[in-house]
Specification:
The complex is a heterotrimer of chains A (248), B (581) and C (313). Chain A is α/β, with parallel strands linked by helices. Chain A has six helices and 13 strands. Chain A has a single domain, classed as Rossmann fold. In chain A, 27% of the residues lie in helices and 31% in strands. In chain A, helix 3 crosses helix 4. Chain C has two domains: 167 residues, HUPs (Rossmann fold, 3-Layer(aba) Sandwich), CATH 3.40.50; 114 residues, Rossmann fold. Chain C is of the alpha/beta class and 313 residues long. Chains in contact: A-B, A-C. At the A-C interface, helix 3, helix 4, strand 7, strand 8 and strand 9 of A face helix 3, helix 4, strand 5, strand 7 and strand 8 of C. Strand 12 of chain A pairs antiparallel with strand 8 of chain C, so a sheet runs across the interface. Bound molecules: flavin-adenine dinucleotide (2 copies).
Chain lengths: 248, 581, 313
């Protein structure tokens, strides 16, 4: 079976982003970009399924500008077999992304589409669910454990109430949470091999997709800062302060 | 200790905008070194170094290596980190594909070593010395030795050492006494004691391959009678499995000022079986082919420690609040003197990076360019820059680490801050692989005879001339022009003064090397400033330009005290009677 | 005028407090009506709790054995069948809502607004991006507005209402491809719910072990507080995942948040920005948590907690 894995180029999670003074967005010029950490986990999980003999092929897909090929190369270096780049300089919102992924899914017919549960830039947490809806497939979001068994899978999900296990028929969409696995370090020879692995490129128009109506971003602002607090010297002082505020 | 974050923005700036790394992909054999590979290599190396190797820097320093009856145990985590590093293919980055390497340019290996040394300088020595052993084997080893040893050294499955120093033979290798007796069966029995051997014994790998300088019984005295031998810790059977233990014994390890995570061993060769590399009595020449790379590596250690100290100091200065600054700023980074220290650290560190990466690129050209005359020119540059990369970058390491402690104030002197470790670690880089004095003598001696410094002065002058119409660069072009004239004058003086008294260049060599290095840095700051001018809207480039201005205004003027000091001659240095000192 | 449908979150017996927070958000939409849909196998009790939320026009109770567990693939088609009657469909931005609403939006061919933190007008909202390090003001296009509501940004609506409860049957085909197997809870039923609690006591990697977490639980019990944790503490296995606070855990807004042995990484801080008062106990005076704490105390948590307990006794 094939697994299709989504890979998004985002500002590296270590970067402290700055909101532009004119409210037009977040400064990304020259900022370190990486693969969305949840997607890295998705790639790792797909590779582990392949290594366990449960999948034959892992295909990485990204939607984004030319530079997103760097993240595809990372996925290929980790071990993905080939990659698909849907190239666009537009801001692609989740519903459009889901439509693109649906079109690729129709072409490739994977048994599992594995996506990160959210991208750490816009934190939407939507694309996997939307793709599952469009394909009328089962979805198992926020996965922390995946057992594939023939044509179905048991997926443990991290939800607010604890750990929920669902049994889903394949094909399905799975979104990954942080504790699913720890992604491997890329090996240098695999970076070289990745260069020779194929990347197929499409435009959104070539896929015959109509972009969805978009949410319009009117402005970007910095969050309200908390008032700086104080250091107290002792437990007694702390307790007195909390009592004064009526908190204990 | 603050976490190490690879300065990827600066590294990519130097690679792309200063040295134009993309040209390497046009050289035969380096077709793979395209921009995407360069980016991928830097990204992934940064990841593994930041996450697995750099975190062991402080614990490695505290724990140190342990010696027990001939065995040496590296600090906790080193072995696993080394194995991951090797298994991930990083040790073979620039080595031949024929022996399991990746055949990438040395320039990329340089960028990775920059990160590795900054992340953990003690750790970086284990793969670092293996590189030297590989290089000697590639250049001078027989096919048979290459077949047996090169692949395992390339993949890091085994590590290598360089065994030169003996108790009576340090800077002066003519004193080497270790003996080698021909067994007339292709092997030699080697007997003697080597001291200060880095990585001579440790617990990472199953075999350690020593490259040893020793004398045949009938060898001429002095450096002309030294041969090089390969001596494995374990003999290799004909089926490539490990055989008997060779009597190469670690007698003890040194307690040191710094780099505690690196084992520094006394190695006794007790009639150990060795194989000669190349021809008898040519060992020193062979040693020098690998010495260039080893010296460049030590220069990168200076750069690395400077980078780490700079990162720590900047981070601290942005947080520490102490007296409202004159400009109203709350944190100490607003105090002009703290800023002066930080900018000095930044300017020197970034300058060393430019010189190191460019020298690496010249090295690649000198090996791979199809045109012999281009290769020769590039090789001349490498020859000239090797002592500069080694000595100036390691002096910089000490200066910057010391400033780092100063920026932190009392906290800097306290172990927990992690700063004092950098200061302790940095000193050895000025000593091993030929002390910085020996580097300076090389510059004013051999390199001057080959006209190398003179040629590059001409090249620098041409560069300044070519840019002279760019008024935005006047801030650096003007002082550089004056400084270059001074360098030229000093160079001419040295050549003349050497004929009057050979002590004249010897007494001024270190100062001359510093002077020359400052001009070299200035040359690259011109290129960097020009690149940064193009996109000033971005805070990185704004800071880059400001750093170039700082260099031109605050560091380059050092030349004006160096030049007259150099030209004051040896007499004042030697005047005092020995008994009176 | 807006007609709002809120999807109730519950466990079959109790309505989750997040639903009343979504109600508060809905009140900002100057709605003509706000209805709450309860999907359950047997939901009378939950429907009644929903009816008590002030401002609710009507509660729809959709009972069906298939609705026993809140499975997105099963709930979504039923909600889609209802949706055309409304201008807004909202759910809390909990794992329940996050899982569910995008599936609805995609079928309705509208984008979704995630994590609404402020309502400017019925189509204009604020939402956080980059782990809350920036806020964007967004406008939804034509069509139904589907959104999740960042519960930490809204207080619970009052419980003085008495809306009518209307049973509904929805006849749509439900898929059989997704089956509930089990739910493992960490069994802290007698402690306050982390997302609703007025007080939270939280432990990080500094707590050191599962055994040591007992001191955190004990202090929480003394204060009547819920227990939270950093990701590092969860990753190390000191405490189950449903206690994680932060960008990828729970985003909470208790009146009092007390952290012990948590350094204060931005991903963790993203979860507590809206807390009333933050108290930080950490032995490292430079820990970033002190930059946002209202009261910071430098010291060893194992010495400070016993002292605290004494002072509270
Ligand atoms: C931690 C550590 C690791 C090492 N690792 C290795 C290793 O792996 N392999 C190895 O073979 N060696 C190694 N060494 C040895 C190192 O290379 C020597 O210490 C170094 O070359 C200097 O030699 P020396 O210590 O004998 O000093 P000396 O040669 O005695 O020098 C003392 C001083 O005299 C100066 N001096 C000496 N000769 C001249 C001259 N001609 N002109 C001007 N000044 C001069 C030197 O600059 C120095 O300031 C290591 C040393 C240390 C401390
Ligand atoms: C994509 C992504 C998402 C993430 N999401 C989250 C998230 O949702 N929530 C989250 O919490 N993290 C999240 N993280 C992880 C986050 O970056 C930090 O790694 C994590 O929050 C650190 O947890 P910590 O503060 O417990 O541990 P550490 O950073 O290790 O800090 C431990 C602290 O304990 C202190 N300490 C130790 N012993 C004592 C003692 N005896 N007394 C007092 N103090 C002591 C130390 O001084 C230190 O400050 C995420 C990371 C990524 C990459």
């Amino acid at each position: 079976m094939k697994i299709l894995v989504g890979v998004k180029r985002v500002v590296d999670f270590n970067v402290r982003i700055q909101v532009k003074a004119d409210g037009s967005g977040v400064a990304t010029e020259g900022v370190k970009m990486s693969m969305n950490p949840f997607d890295e986990i998705a790639v790792e999980e797909a590779l582990r399924l392949k290594e366990a003999g449960k999948a034959e092929e892992v295909i990485a897909i990204t939607i984004g500008p030319k530079a997103s090929q760097e993240q595809l190369r990372t996925a290929l270096a980790m071990g993905a077999d080939r990659a698909i780049h849907v190239e666009t300089d537009e801001d692609v919102q989740p519903l459009t992304a889901a439509r693109i992924l649906k079109a690729i899914t129709d072409k490739e017919e994977p048994k599992i589409v594995m996506l990160g549960k959210q991208a750490i830039d816009d934190d939407n947490n939507q694309t996997a669910q939307m793709l599952a809806a469009l394909a009328n497939w089962p979805q198992a979001t926020f996965a922390s454990k995946i057992d594939v068994d023939g044509d179905s899978a048991n997926v443990t999900r991290e939800i607010d109430a604890g750990l929920e296990t669902l049994s889903i028929d394949l094909p399905a969409v799975i979104s990954t949470d942080l504790r699913l696995n720890e992604p491997r370090y890329v090996k240098l020879p695999d970076i070289m091999k990745a260069k020779r692995k194929p990347i197929e490129t499409f435009t959104i128009a070539e896929l015959g997709i109509e972009p969805a109506a978009a949410v319009k971003v009117l402005k970007t602002s910095a969050p309200a800062a908390r008032q700086a607090g104080i250091k107290v010297a002792s437990v007694d002082e702390l307790v007195a302060a909390l009592k004064e505020k009526g908190l204990i | 200790m603050p976490e190490y974050k690879a300065p990827q923005r600066d590294m990519m700036f130097v690679l792309n905008d200063v040295i134009n790394v993309s040209e390497l992909a046009e050289l035969p054999g380096f077709e793979d070194a395209t921009p995407d590979i360069v980016q991928g290599v830097i990204d992934e190396a940064a990841k593994i170094i930041e996450n697995t190797i750099a975190p062991l820097n402080e614990t490695g320093d505290r724990e140190g290596c342990r010696f027990d009856n001939g065995t040496v145990t590296a600090p906790a985590g080193f072995k696993e980190a080394y194995q991951l590093y090797a298994e991930s293919g990083w040790t073979g980055l620039d080595k031949s594909i024929d022996f399991g390497g990746q055949g990438l340019p040395y320039t990329l290996a340089t960028a990775v070593t920059d990160m590795l040394s900054a992340g953990n300088d003690a750790f970086s020595l284990y793969p670092g010395l293996t590189n030297g052993a590989c290089e000697a084997l590639v250049e001078h080893g027989s096919q048979e030795l290459q077949d047996i040893y090169l692949e395992k050294l390339t993949t890091g499955e085994w590590t290598g050492t360089m065994c030169l120093t003996e108790p009576q033979a340090g800077s002066d290798l003519s004193q080497v006494r270790t003996k080698a007796i021909d067994q007339n069966d292709g092997t030699y029995l080697v007997e003697g004691t080597k001291v200060f051997i880095t990585g001579g014994e440790h617990d990472f790998v199953e075999n350690i391959i020593h490259l040893v300088l020793a004398r045949l019984p009938d060898a001429p005295a002095g450096v002309k009678g030294i041969s090089m031998f390969l001596i494995p810790k374990f003999m290799i059977n004909s089926d490539a499995s490990l055989g008997e233990r060779n009597p190469v014994v670690c007698a003890s390890i040194e307690e040191k000022m710094g780099i505690h995570g690196s084992s520094t061993c006394v190695m006794n060769f007790e009639n150990a079986v060795g194989y000669m590399i190349g021809n008898p009595n040519e060992g020193l020449r062979y040693m020098f082919t690998m010495m260039n790379l080893a010296r460049l590596m030590v220069g990168l250690q200076g750069l690395g420690v400077a980078e780490r100290a700079t990162q720590g100091a900047i981070e601290y200065a942005k947080e520490r609040k102490q007296a409202t600054a004159i400009n109203g700023g709350a944190t100490i980074i607003h105090h002009p003197d703290v800023r002066r220290m930080l900018m000095t650290m930044k300017a020197l560190t970034e300058g060393c990076r430019m010189v190191a990466y460019d020298t690496a690129k010249q090295y690649d050209i000198s090996k791979a360019h199809p045109d012999a005359s281009v290769r020769k020119t590039a090789n001349d540059r490498v020859e000239l820059m090797t002592p500069i990369c080694k000595a100036f970058a390691t002096d910089t390491g000490c200066e910057v680490a010391s400033l780092g402690v100063q920026v932190l104030g009392g906290a800097g002197y306290i172990r927990e801050s992690g700063m004092e470790q950098h200061m302790r670690d940095a000193k050895i880089f000025c000593i091993y692989e030929g002390t910085n004095a020996i580097q300076a003598l090389d510059l004013v001696g051999r390199k001057m005879k080959l006209n190398l410094p003179q040629n590059f002065i001409t090249e620098m002058a041409a560069k300044l001339e070519a840019e002279s119409s760019n008024s935005e660069l006047a801030f650096i072009l003007e002082p550089m022009k004056i400084a270059l004239e001074l360098l030229d004058e000093t160079t001419q003086w040295l050549i003349k003064a050497a004929q009057e008294d050979p002590q004249n260049p010897a007494a001024a060599a270190v100062e001359y090397l510093t002077l020359y290095s400052l001009l070299t840095h200035g040359y690259f700051w011109v290129i960097a400033a020009k690149a940064a001018l193009i996109k000033q809207d971005d805070s990185f480039c704004q800071a880059k330009l400001a750093t170039a201005q700082f260099f031109a205004a605050k560091i380059l003027p050092r030349v004006h005290s160096l030049a007259p000091a150099i030209m004051s001659g040896a007499a004042v240095v030697m005047a005092a009677e020995e008994d009176g000192i | 005028m807006a007609k709002v449908l809120i999807i109730a979150e519950h466990d079959g017996k109790k309505l989750n407090g997040s639903t009343a927070r979504v109600m508060t958000c809905a009140q900002g939409l100057s709605a003509e009506s706000v209805e709450i849909a309860v999907f359950a196998a047997e939901g009378a009790a939950v429907a009644e709790q929903a009816a008590a939320i002030s401002g609710v026009t009507k509660v729809l109770l959709i009972e069906n054995p298939a609705n026993e567990h809140a499975t997105a693939a099963i709930l979504a088609p039923q909600i889609e069948a209802l949706a055309s009657e409304y201008s807004h469909v909202l759910a809390p931005s909990t794992t329940f809502g996050k899982d569910l609403t995008p599936r609805i939006a995609a079928h309705l061919a509208v984008p979704q607004i995630s994590d609404i933190m402020r309502v400017e007008s019925p189509r204009i909202f604020d939402r956080p991006i980059y782990a809350g390090n920036a806020v964007i003001t967004v406008e939804a296009p034509e069509g139904i507005v589907v959104g999740t509501v960042r519960t930490a940004s809204f207080s619970e609506a009052e419980k003085t209402g008495s809306a009518t409860i209307e049973k509904r049957e929805i006849n749509v085909e439900l898929p059989s491809h997704t089956r509930f197997v089990k739910l493992e809870t960490s069994g802290s039923a007698d402690r306050p719910d982390l997302q609703a609690a007025a007080k939270v006591v939280s432990g990080g990697r500094g707590v050191g072990s599962t055994e040591n977490f007992k001191v955190i639980y004990d202090l929480a019990d003394k204060l009547g507080a819920a227990v939270g944790a950093s990701r590092a503490a969860v990753d190390a296995g000191f405490i189950p995942n449903d206690h994680q606070v932060g960008q990828t855990g729970k985003i909470i807004a208790p009146e009092l948040y007390m952290s012990f042995g948590i350094s204060g990484a931005i991903q963790h801080l993203a979860g507590i920005k809206d807390a009333g008062t933050i108290v930080a106990i950490n032995k490292d005076p430079d820990a970033p948590i002190f930059e946002i704490a209202d009261f910071g105390l430098v010291g060893d948590l194992f010495e400070i907690i016993p002292e605290l307990e004494k002072a509270l006794a």
